[in-house]
Model the fold of this input.
Amino acid sequence: MKSRKDLWSLYSEKVMEHFQNPRNVGEMQSPDGIGHAGNPVCGDIMELYIKVKDDIIIDAKFKTFGCGAAIATSSILTEMVKGKTIEEAMKISNKAVAEALDGLPPIKMHCSVLAEEALGLAIEDYLAKSKRK
Amino acid sequence: MRRIYLDYAATTPTHPLVLKAMLPWFTDGFGNPASIHSFGQEAKGAIEEAREKVARLIGAKSEEIVFTSSGTEADNFAIKGVAYAKEHKGKHIITTAIEHHAVIEPCKFLEKRGFKVTYLPVDKDGLVDPRHVKKAITDETILISVMHANNEIGTIEPIKEIARIANDRGICFHTDAVQTVGHLPVDVDELKVDLVSISAHKFCGPKGVGALYIRKGTKIVPFMHGGEQEHGRRASTQNVPGIVGFGKACELAQKEMGQEKVRLQTLRDKLISGILDRIDDVRLNGHPTQRLPNNVNISLEFVEGESMLLNLDLVGIAASTGSACSSSVLEASHVLLALGLPHELAHSSLRLTLGQETTEKDIDYVLEKLPQIVKKLRVMSPLYKPGKK
Ligand SMILES: Cc1ncc(COP(=O)(O)O)c(C=O)c1O
Ligand code: FES
Done:
């Protein structure tokens, strides 16, 4: 018999840890940028909210409807962007997100693309809004 | 931690008495049933005894039972075997949109080889309308295949009526009864079916053994070519221990089926009403009453199925889902989509299937844990707007 740990051998321990205790869940009061991404592969949805001060992302929150990998990538993404400048954050790729989780199974890589897209859209939204100001 | 298995539709544990019956046939009774000597004849005796038990369970004659390696093989055998035997008469097959892949894929295979296949729709509860079957029949129709009960949503199809329509037109009728044989009474003469697929591991028999019931006189091409086993219909040395276990499982099912059905149905209804009472925005998938005694299939809106399964597994509950995310091809369940469910609801589906070890305590445990998990995931879900409804 396999032990509990092996049961979801599909996912790394880090993925499971973020899945069980997702960071920064929820909506944000008056965010500076919102990214709303839909996954064309399986139909999942992620919403990312960012708060920006002096070009630095000071807070991030998310809401995700999706699989274990989608929830874990959303969670770690919010941790990764905090404290980064907009320019730095723009460089975060889905690969980097997956790597930060000690990897994702190949079939779940598209879920990390969702996170990358949501981030891109949130930044775009922020930039558009700040131009208007 | 407590571990609760609620995925009996996927497979069941082998009954201890089944295992006990099987064991001697790995060692002392290792002979090849095709051999003339006593080792062989003992093994042959054992498979013939098992054949009688399988036949008795479904009201068939033992010579109408062909052992196969699985339910999947029985389905493939039935579909391709009849198609090839009758292609000179016509090349049209009627089946449904909610069949198991073991029926759908052989049909698709045949479509690529010049056959025409009609996949009948189902209503919102998963029922096939016999009138649709009647309308779909053409002069070219050689086979109608409609499953007895659906493995995902548990809906029991009106196959007696459909078989009558097929009989009236002299068309061969097959039913995939993998989810019903051993659980509900199935009588081939009462139902007037020509071919029935059975799988042992769905009712406490071993994995990798099944059977196809073939009514005497049915034209069918052998599934495997080779030796003369199974009257030349399915070559290869029989899986003696597996077949013996299959026979034992049939014998046990025949004895226990009636009581077990009532027990499971009570637990099933408690689980369904408990979930509906405790959680908002839940939909029961499948027919409310015409369904397998052990099947619960629900859509919990705004929550994705795989993340639900992971959370359930973390508290020891084993279930399944029709969500695209948990499928290896990232497609939502074809059965749920055939009900007309929008993609999000197929995504949010959860199947709990009960079995012989399920107790009322297990149901209470699920009713305690599931609402917590759904709540946690809904807080996370961008689709969920509290107080929306
Ligand atoms: C309705 C139905 N048909 C066919 C099969 C295939 O049976 P087996 O697992 O024995 O190949 C299953 C089980 O997965 C089933 O539920
Ligand atoms: S979100 Fe659907 S597979 Fe990950």
Remarks:
- Chain B is about 40% helix and 15% strand.
- Residues 252 and 348 of chain B are 36 Å apart (CA to CA).
